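New to this. Please check both lines:
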Amino acid sequence: MVDYQATKPIQHGGNQAAIRARLKLGNRPLLDFSAPLNALGPPPGALVAVREATETIDRYPEPGSPRLVERLAEYHGIPGDRIIVGAGTTDLIALIGQVFRDSLGRRAREMGDAETPLTHLSEPTYGEYRRTSAQNGLNTKVWGEHILGWIQDDEPEGATGLFWTGHPNNPTGRAWERDRLLSLIERNPALTTIVDEAYLPFLPDEADRTLVHEAVDRDNLLVLRSMTKIFAFPGLRIGYAVASAEMIRKLKRAQQPWTVTTAAEVAAIAALDDEAYLGRTIDLIATESARLTERLWDIPGLRPAWPERERPRSAPSMPNFVLVSLVETPWDSLHLQEALARRGLFARECSNYRGLEIGSQVTGPERSFRTNGHLRFCVRTPSQNDLLLATLADLMASRPNG
């Protein structure tokens, strides 16, 4: 049975207005650790391009963003007819659900089981995967049961329909071993795997992990890429998908015109041209993600969502965010988020991720922890991360009010 509760809008990170209104914070400054964006801010060239684009607001954007498609094709070294641009990956996720709805519905009828699961995922994960499935009348099956792990390892063997997976996954931060994911795709031709690489550009070994080049010639693989995360311009809303030429044609036929503004297109092109910016980003995340996680282990009551403190060499690099469980503490995630906000720091409270609710149990092989909820912290600059750590240490040494 389709979960119609899942069709409701989801509260994501980055919504400062909501917490300001709830806590009556007014215009008090909030340092945003809730949205996993590049702490360096937008590339300077992108800002210049957006300002110049204001001179064209009296004209419609060119449908399909052909200049950006051409630049992305050059950037990845793939044909342009394997790329579709949209207003962020969330826009493309909704489009994918719409395009696959009818064909998957027919498949269920042919199988003689209207209730058969036609979308598959592991949770906790980005809620829009389940939401677009529910909006399009597609039943969802959840695979796997462990949150604590170094890598993605839940394989929907023999499944039919769509398999949504983050690489790395939001909010757990786990990435796939590339060969393992490719093997899953090859063994399951009736399963279309949608690999969300929104956060992969933050990893220093992105080139060895991405499936962009594999997607162009496979009928059952689609790769999503976000530009708003790595280039820190979420207000412009831009992302893209890479797939076979036939799959891209199907998506384009269903896509609304003018989904991407001229300002977003020119900003994305300018950002791709700034190689130095990307290099600085990789250096920052490689250092600060590991340091922030290591320091979080030292704060009683907080536990980063990894199997253990010592990270094996075989584990993927860490993304630009850290998921933390609250354990053996009087604090719960909602009260801690509010206390941080009152001190000017905005964290992502994660109880609307399935499996991360207050009181939930997180598990891994031979491990189990009862939690008082979870928070996710974006990795920012060293001084900003130090401010977060000091504030957390001070709060966790006290008791919540009320």
About this structure: The first strand starts at residue 31 and ends at 32. The chain has two domains: 4-41+276-396, 44-272.
